[in-house]
Write a structure and sequence with these properties.
Strand content: 25-35%
Keywords: Membrane, Transmembrane, Transmembrane helix
CATH class of the largest domain: Alpha Beta
Largest sheet: 8 strands, mixed
Number of strands: 22
Protein name: DUF58 domain-containing protein
CATH architecture of the largest domain: 3-Layer(aba) Sandwich
Shape: elongated
Distance between the termini: 61 Å
Radius of gyration: 31 Å
Strand order of the largest sheet: 16-15-14-17-18-21-20-22
């Protein structure tokens, strides 16, 4: 994507010193009639002229363009980015200077980094936090061979990368413990996808299999009719995400709650549920219908499911935990005709304080509430660091940090397993941000009364 570009050409510190020395030597030669001083000044003038010509030539053809290949990736994943020159820069042909491209990235995408200047510069950026992250501007930095002049061309293109919540796999035991799956799931019946056909008559459309024409209906109506499947009765579920602004709520808990919400949404969809996710104010974050491509063979249904799933993950990626605790929490319009309800919130001593969960659940007979606290101490913000080198396969440091973080989470899970109790009509599971949904729903121990 092309953006607004601004160019700055200035002498470097070395160039200023050479320029001052040149003027001083020339003045000294005029005053003292010392010929070597004049000759040295002339030599410095020549060096300055060569450097100026070199920077002007090296700056020709620099017309960068950046595009994001993967605009949305799960947290912990890598987004591919392509940065290339639309024209062939002279600096890549004639070695009249040195150049790099500096990307002024936010910390969520790895921080500021440099790319060796070339015609094409593919690289990856690691996404460490959920939400939308602006890539920020990038600058093409060029210096002449003597390091006397500095050319900076900065481009702002407004590109963004979204960190999506991580969707984990739920085991069959975890799905059954919450009522998502059982031995007789209505949603397990193959569902007609877009373009599927079955026993109900509908007008014939181009592309329908002629073997599925409903001849009796066609004779009765005088128009070709095709058999259309009757969709089975769907079931609905509601997922309540407690987005109340609470003192002491840490980022790791927010990330775990949103990730669990995405995992529950995916599991419900695969088991044939219609799902709504609402926040603490009762406002709908996202809604999904029954999966049209699961388990049926419909390709169009599968594509529709994928688009709906992506839209839901993008909506969850933008969730903020900033709802007012005293105004608008738990409004009646959040309740519906749900058969299953799952609540996710922070555990800061009194889970779901101020929320009337029963209003969200409606008539649901299966109600599960999950409350999490922080498993690890909050990290101190890092001091600004110098620009690092990034490249197409950059990521060793990121991988090592990820492995270390996984070991810390495993140790936290071993020290404090989840606990199960009751919260009114809800089954309450209390755990930490280190626990997976399977840990929370299948390994929780009963709390003593």
């Amino acid at each position: 994507m092309r953006g607004r570009a601004r160019t700055i050409l200035r002498p470097t510190g070395r160039g200023v010193v050479v320029l001052v020395a040149c003027a001083a030597l020339w003045l000294l030669g005029d005053l003292t009639r010392i010929e070597p001083a004049r000759q040295l000044a002339a030599g410095l003038v020549l060096v300055l002229a060569v450097g100026a010509i070199g920077i002007l030539v090296a700056g020709r053809g620099i017309s960068p363009r950046r595009r994001v290949v993967d605009d949305a990736v799960p947290v912990g994943g890598s987004a591919r980015v392509m940065l290339e020159m639309q024209d062939r820069p002279w600096i890549t042909v004639v070695p009249l200077g040195r150049g790099v491209v500096r990307e002024h990235l936010p910390e969520e995408l790895g921080g500021q980094g440099d790319l060796p200047l070339a015609r094409r510069m593919p690289h990856v950026l690691h996404v460490s936090r959920r939400g939308g992250h602006a890539l920020g501007p990038y600058s093409v930095l060029v210096r002449d061979v003597f390091g006397l002049f500095h050319l900076r061309r900065t481009v702002e293109d407004g590109l963004r990368i979204t960190g999506l919540p991580v969707v984990a796999e739920m085991s069959t035991a975890a799905e059954r413990s919450t009522g998502i799956a059982d031995d007789a799931v209505a949603g397990a019946v193959p569902v007609a996808g877009v373009g599927e056909i079955g026993p109900i008559a509908r007008p014939y459309a181009a592309g329908d299999d002629i073997r599925r024409i409903h001849w009796r209906a066609s004779a009765r109506t005088g128009t070709l009719m095709t058999r259309e499947d009757e969709p089975t009765a769907g079931r609905s579920a509601v997922v309540v995400l407690d987005t109340t602004r609470r003192d002491g709520l840490e980022g790791q808990v927010e990330e775990a709650l949103v990730s669990h919400a995405a995992t529950v949404l995916d599991s419900l969809g695969r088991n044939g549920w219609e799902v709504r996710i609402v926040d603490a104010s009762g406002d709908e974050i996202t809604r999904t219908q029954r999966r049209r491509g699961v388990p049926g063979p419909s390709l169009l249904g599968g594509e529709a499911d994928a688009l709906e799933r992506r839209a839901s993950l993008l909506a969850l990626a933008e969730v903020d935990f900033d709802d007012d605790e005293q105004h608008g929490v738990g409004r009646d319009h959040a309740a519906g005709h749900a058969e299953l309800a799952i609540a996710l919130g922070a555990d800061l001593g009194e889970p779901f304080a101020g929320l009337e969960l029963d209003r969200f659940a409606g008539r649901a007979t299966r109600r599960t509430a999950i409350a999490l606290d922080a498993a690890l101490p909050e990290e101190e913000p890092e001091t600004p660091r110098r620009a690092r080198r990034i490249g197409p396969a950059d990521g060793d440091d990121f991988g090592h940090a990820h492995e270390k973080h996984a070991e810390q989470l495993a140790a936290a899970r071993a020290q404090r397993p989840p606990r199960r109790s009751r919260l009114g009509t809800w089954a309450l599971v209390r755990g930490s941000s280190a626990d997976t949904l399977d840990d929370l729903l299948t390994t929780a121990v009963e709390e003593p009364r």
